[in-house]
DNA sequence: GCGATTTGACCTAG
DNA sequence: CTAGGTCAAATCGC
């Protein structure tokens, strides 16, 4: 979709930049604070205050970005449709030979995709798992879900969920395609909802990793379906995605997480992921 | 018995 | 040829 109109983008961009600049300044102060912990405490904000401010900046930025999307569509920062023919129509290969065994299979790629990171693989949609795959160089398998309304209404939305290697409590969810179904709940937008911070610390007990990779993933699947209108939208980061290097990038970023957040602040750490990768904030219009 | 999930096979893009 | 996405038979759970 990348439907951001230029006017919106430029207006929002300024606002976002302002927020990010402020966040950056706070981060710089925080850095100084770490380098010189014995500095003047009465004149500089505490680490917690700075972290809170940084998070606020990110939140505001995300909020602006998200709200700029009409109709609650998920935000896409730096879209992926770099290729003109991403519709998949112009596949070089000849159509499947219509073998008897497996049906006409068409790999969907470069469709409308968004990525989010959250503490839970749940969201406000109903999904049905249709596959799981071990991914090369990844400790955890990737799970594949499609909209439960696929058969009813031909909804084409699918999502892929993978536990993050460096932080198994977090899930990287890639949404592919948009929901064309009517009643499978509201669109998967996030961040803009008020109260996201409160709702972010969603139950994660079910996410506790077990040692068995395969089990770990599948065992946390169950509530995928029953989970319902609950607006438990876990705070998350929506980013661009079609970049095949995205996930590794995210991983790399996580390695840079130096902060140990205090209890009331720990929600924000992974949110900054999207900003940590330099290519996420490049707007295309 | 039915619907959901698991899992290995199949299929395609790169 | 390989990695990853999808299918569908087998299995599970209610």
From TrEMBL:
Its main location: nucleus. Signal peptide: none annotated. Residues 116-179 form the WRKY domain. Residues 79-89 have a biased composition (Basic and acidic residues). It is found in: Nucleus. It holds the Pfam family WRKY. Residues 79-115, 203-228 are annotated as: Disordered. GO terms for cellular component: nucleus. Keywords: DNA-binding, Nucleus, Transcription, Transcription regulation. GO terms for molecular function: DNA-binding transcription factor activity; sequence-specific DNA binding. This is WRKY domain-containing protein.
